[in-house]
Amino acid sequence: MYDKGKILTGLAVFVVFMTYPFWNNIGRAAYVKPELEKPRMAKECVENVEYMRAEHMAMLNEWRDEVVRNGMHEYHSSFTHQTYAKSLTKTCLKCHENKDKFCDKCHTSVAVSPYCWDCHVDPKGVKQ
Amino acid sequence: MNTTRRCFLKLASIAALGWGGVRPAAQVLASGGAAPSEGLLFASRHAVHAGPHALTAKRWAMVIDTRALTSEIIKDMVEVCHRIHNVPDIPTKQNIKWIWETHFENLFLDDVHEHLPADHPQIGVALCNHCDNPPCVRVCPTKATFQREDGIVMMDFHRCIGCRYCMAGCPYGSRSFNFMDPRPYIAKITPEFPTRTKGVVEKCEFCAERLAEGKLPACVEVSRGAVVFGDLADPESPVRKALASRYSIRRSPTLGTQPCVYYLV
């Protein structure tokens, strides 16, 4: 092999860089789910908790399209057998009153920041 | 390869079979709102699946009595609309408006001349005409603006990319562009209705969100009878009765947009 030294050094540098995220994380604390503020006025979410945890983003997108484009404003939950308005402010934030200590807290810990609140209003944060 | 006629005909018949299974092209390009997919090119009309309390119609329309309107009534109409929809008040040319007072001759470019009776109305109110043939919907590249089956020309703010083709398309100036973040210019935010952001276009939606709750548009409610709202397809509706009672005109009808806001003169 020609230039053996250069090639092997290059490969070693490459491997070190590629695996940097893994060994850099060794010894760090594992992800812990943040302590979220549970709603006081209700025991159950609009669907079961596991479903909400996994699917609320898709569900909200569906609600958005159904309300705005098809004029369907009501959500019938097969879990609670109740009807909810398909609305961020008027439904989710009615129960999860404290957006900072619920939605935002979890989102911050997983590094997502939904842009919905550029337009949708958190009643708590409104100047009166 | 040497293609014989027999070979060609075989291939052609197989191709024709395959084509038969494809939806007719026109349907693909402009599917109805009820179909699960939307048309590719042309705007489609969206079906409305109203809840049990909703007000519904075949074709919503508005009739404005220009002789009953006063500046005071218009002020109330504008105030309530802009308050409940979080429309900002920006003190420059970049202001946003959903409904506004304007001079009679600005409303009816084609119909006003210098020899009208002295007591003819000097002012009127303008808003989105919810045209039957809306140019804004035709030009929107993302279908952010679309027409519902009941005639309402809706905005889907989530889809608007701010290209402003619709503003160029609208001959009535009914649309406003957010040149800046509107929130600092909203005196008191109404939490129930989302605001908008910099870079989207907005306009009147005939209070679609209120109709869904069984309420009339807010401007109609405060108009002290000067504005009526109802189903153009129903001969017993207040709009049809108003149209039957007096002579009415629409804004720039020769453009072929078929406005559904009528003005009694």
Distance between the termini of chain B: 76 Å
What is the CATH architecture annotation of the largest domain in chain B? 2-Layer Sandwich
| Major sheet description of chain A | 2 strands, antiparallel
- The first-level CATH class name of the largest domain in chain B: Alpha Beta
Mean pLDDT of chain A: 90
- Total helical elements of chain B: 9
How would you describe this structure to a colleague?
The complex is a heterodimer of chains A (128) and B (265). With 128 residues, chain A is mainly alpha-helical. Chain A has helices at 4-18, 20-25, 49-70, 88-95, 100-109, and strands spanning 74-76, 83-85. Chain A has a domain at 49-118. The longest helix of chain A is centred in the middle third of the chain and has 22 residues, at 49-70. Helix content of chain B is 25%, strand content 15%. In chain B, 37% of the residues are buried. Chains A and B meet through helix 3 and helix 4 of A and loops of B.
Compile the SSE list and pairings.
The complex is a heterodimer of chains A (128) and B (265).
Chain A (H helix, E strand, L loop, with lengths): L3 H15 L1 H6 L23 H22 L3 E3 L6 E3 L2 H8 L4 H10 L19
Chain B lengths: L4 H17 L3 H5 L15 E2 L13 E6 L5 H14 L14 E5 H4 L15 E5 L7 H5 L5 E4 L4 E3 L9 H5 L6 E2 L23 E2 L5 H4 L6 H4 L5 E5 L6 H8 L2 E2 L11 E4 L1
Parallel strand pairs in B: 1-5, 2-11
Antiparallel strand pairs in B: 2-9, 3-4, 5-6, 7-8, 10-11
Which features would summarize this protein structure in a list?
heterodimer, A: 128 residues, elongated, B: 265 residues, alpha+beta, Alpha-Beta Plaits, 4-stranded mixed β-sheet, 3-stranded mixed β-sheet
Question: How would you summarize what this structure contains?
Answer:
Chain A has 128 residues and is mainly alpha-helical.
